[in-house]
Amino acid sequence: MNPIPRLFRRSRRYSDIDISVNEHIEERTDELIAEGLPRKQAVQIARREFGNVALLQQRSREQWQWPALESLLADLKFTLRRLRKFPGFGITVLLTLAIGIGANTAVFSVIDGVLLKPLPYPRPDELVSLWLDAPGAPGLANFQNGLRLSPSMYFTFSENNHAFQSLGVFVPNTANVTGIAQPEEVHTLLITDGILQTLAIPPALGRWLSHDDQDPHSAKRVILSYGYWQRRFGGDSSVIGRSLQLDSQTCEIVGVMPRGFRVVDHDFDMLVPLQFDRAHAKLAGFGFNGIGRLKSGISRAQANSDVARLVETWMHTFTNGPGTNPFYYRLWRISPAFRSLKQQVIGSVSNVLWVVMATVGLVMLIACVNIANLLLVRADSRQHELSIRAALGAGRMRIARELLIESLFLGLIGGVFAIGVAYGGLRLLVAFGPTNLPRLSEVTIDARSLLFTLAVSIVSGLLFGSIPALKYAHARATAALSANRTVSASRTRQRSRNVLVVAQVSMALVLLVSALLMIRTFASMRKVDPGFSDPAHLETLRIYLPDLLVADPVVVTHVQNEIAEKIAAVPGVTSVGFSAAVPMEGNDPNWDEMAVEGKVYPGGEPPMRFFNYVSPGYFSTMGSAIVAGREYSWDDVYGLRNNIMVSENFARENWGSASAAIGKRMRQFKSMPWQVIIGVVQDVRHNGVNEKAPETIYWPAMLQSPYTHQPTIDGPRSATFVVRSKRAGSEALVADIQRAVGSVNANVPIANPSTMQDIYAKSMARTSFTLSMLAIAGSMALLLGIIGIYGVISYAVSQRTREIGIRLALGAQKSELKWMFVRSALVLTAAGVAIGIVGAAALTQSMKSLLFEISPLDPLTYLTVPFILVAAAALASYLPARRAAGVNPVEALRVD
Amino acid sequence: MSRNSDNRDLFPGALEIMILQSLRHKPMHGYALVKHIQQVSDDLLQVEEGSLYPALQRMLREGLLDSQEGVSAKGRPTRIYRVTNAGIKHLERELSSFGKMFDGITRVLAFSQS
């Protein structure tokens, strides 16, 4: 018979049974009364004749039940009842679980999205990033991406390889868009043919860029991203064929990419063809990222050797111009070392993430230990009941099952709340986490995360439930049933709780040591002089002048000058300057060889040095001290005087001191006239405070380009303006600045307004993020440890009340008693500390890359943390110890 | 099943077919059924309530019986049990197999006697 309707009609059935049974008894009673018996006796006899009423009713009901399910549901009902009676316990456990499991789920979602999931392209294991090693290139070790590809390399490799289905290069850029709405700056991705084929994601609308679109003489066509299409065109499908102005050049829109499409890890608003001019491509120009899709069955090693032979072909095919030696690059020993695209994207972030996962997992473990202890205490108070049940015939499995059901239930409910916590935690992570976390947009709470949550809930439920279940399922009827008149709690029962406390303390120590190391790292980083001052009052913004808008480079500099003056006139602004790049923005640096007059370099080639372009007033605005000499003036700039400024470490490296550098000469290429050093600036930590300040050359904002044979004037078209003002960071200031810029040229947008303080904070984001994670975890571990110790000692006191009473009655001092309990806590703590130190020493080794100016075995940290833990343990045990001393011996001895 | 230790227990299924047959004759409530079986068997059989009521529920679950709400002559709420069509079919099947079994036993006993 269909079981489901059975359940619904069950209450009716039960009432049927009750009515029939009652009626039976009543009828019999009436019969007996009719026979002359008094009512009371008649009822008694009728009932007695019937038999065990309750049992019969139960057996009748059982026809309608599934016994196994029923007993399970009964257990659940009792669990709920017990939890309702002691809501504090339930709430504590659920809160602990929700936070612990939720944190683990959040971190798992991040790890899943970033490290574990394959890239969102078809057959992603065929995708490689064209990483080139160049061990012979001087100074190239400073590059983070290996040697990038040049346009000539792209041509050579793509035309002659045997290993790839398709390959291409790309470079992220920005451009000014005009002609649709307000002029705005957009993120573009300049791509060659082969990029879209490699990623193999078809367009949502229109078509890909074709080979013809890459012809430098053809019209410019672009593809929009989904987001940009929605924002600027409202998702209008008639956008294909329309045109817009990109850097004052008309471009036709030919396609829209699908939602969420990114190239490798780069977001973009528009895809623009690179349109390399093959006829004029030189060997040099190493600025492009290469990716490719291997032919099926070809391994990366095969691709490496395939392209390795093409390096020679490349040098034979192209040249850097008359008079240059193409085979010079043999010195660089360029060798392909292709890596999987996913590896390229993830980079070095996996270190941080695994540290975080380990941290959060450890806290979860501590939480489980705590809950296990709580459950042990509860099970202990139920000893009597459980022993009776065991004596009455309940099997071990039955009792263990009930205990496990309680913990599983707690675990699952905790898991449900944990999903909410995880969701919130992810939002926080995305908002405050390291902003350069790759693939952050792919991190969500999806089915895998939910499955993980379920798994963790069940495992933790079983974990902390198994401990009391194992201990109390024994049918130790006699031991427990005997009244505790003369016997104190046996040693063995205390032991498991003690072991748990020791485990908690050692795990807490590991977390606290890691947290303290990170705190000191962060403090050291903050003490480092970044090379500029008062960043909170420094507003930065970028302005780009495309060549179709302002053709003449000299005019570009004049326009930039005028913009600077107009901004300086804005109320509240004290000074203005600009440069090609401000520190810590993660801008790719410009590097080239800088030869110092009179110096002979081993190997013939001078080392590569970082360079930047600066305007007059830039350093004074930034607050970077001029250690020797002076800043540029606009006369220097417009007069194209061969003046140059250098950083202090460059000066020291070559001439011993900053002042000695003034007047010395150096140049970039042999064809360049000697440049005279007129000023030396303090070191600036361009790559972040935890990296050394690079030796830097500062060109003026306009100069004779060293790259061309004919004298051409050049300057940075994209300039970051720095504005010192008390109003930095406010929307009003940015609006005023925009107006000032607009008054010079209405078609110039400003981009990325942010204060130097924000940039500085972002550069420390990875450290500060790890720090906050560890600090939170460490404090949670400490708190849980304190609660754990308090609980254990407190319970010991309550169990040993009689013993305490006896001792007091026999004349023990109160202080002796207190010390007895505190000492037991300290012994446990000492054991935990000893184990924890060993663990911490081992585990912090893996944190080395995150630390700055501190060793993972720093003695001060390893002394401080145990001290904190011992103090906490002493405090946590003192309170219950005081309670012990306050026991009234008469009361204690009276207790049964 | 019987109270007297002399009497043997009934074979399984006996109670069921007796209940079905009795209720087929006339639908009644639990106590009446008990008395009916007692009277009709001339006190040779006494049904214990401990077997009857669970058996009634089992047969309800299996669809052989139907229970109906009602009010007894004395004004109390009552449940009248009634055989269903399926119950009648089941009863006839069981009676025929019971009959065959009884035949078989009779023949074996007759054989050894002769």
What's the alpha carbon Rg of chain B, rounded to whole Å? 16 Å
CATH superfamily of chain B: Winged helix-like DNA-binding domain superfamily/Winged helix DNA-binding domain
* CATH fold category name of chain B: Arc Repressor Mutant, subunit A
Give the terminus-to-terminus CA distance of chain B: 33 Å
Specify the oligomeric state: heterodimer
State the share of residues found in helices of chain B, binned by percent.
55-70%
Approximate shape of chain B:
elongated
Instruction: Tally the helices of chain A.
Output: 29
Uncertain stretches of chain B: 1-6
* Helix-strand topology string of chain B: HHHEEH
Q: Residue share in helices of chain A?
A: 40-55%
Total of domains of chain A = 5
Task: Characterize the biggest β-sheet of chain A.
Answer: 8 strands, mixed
Instruction: Give me the number of helical elements of chain B.
Output: 4
In total, how many beta strands of chain B? Answer: 2
Q: Per CATH, which architecture of chain B?
A: Orthogonal Bundle
Q: Could you give a short account of the major beta sheet of chain B? A: 2 strands, antiparallel
Structural class estimated from helices and strands of chain B:
alpha+beta
Regarding CATH, which class of chain B?
Answer: Mainly Alpha
Strand content of chain A: 5-15%
Distance between the termini of chain A: 55 Å
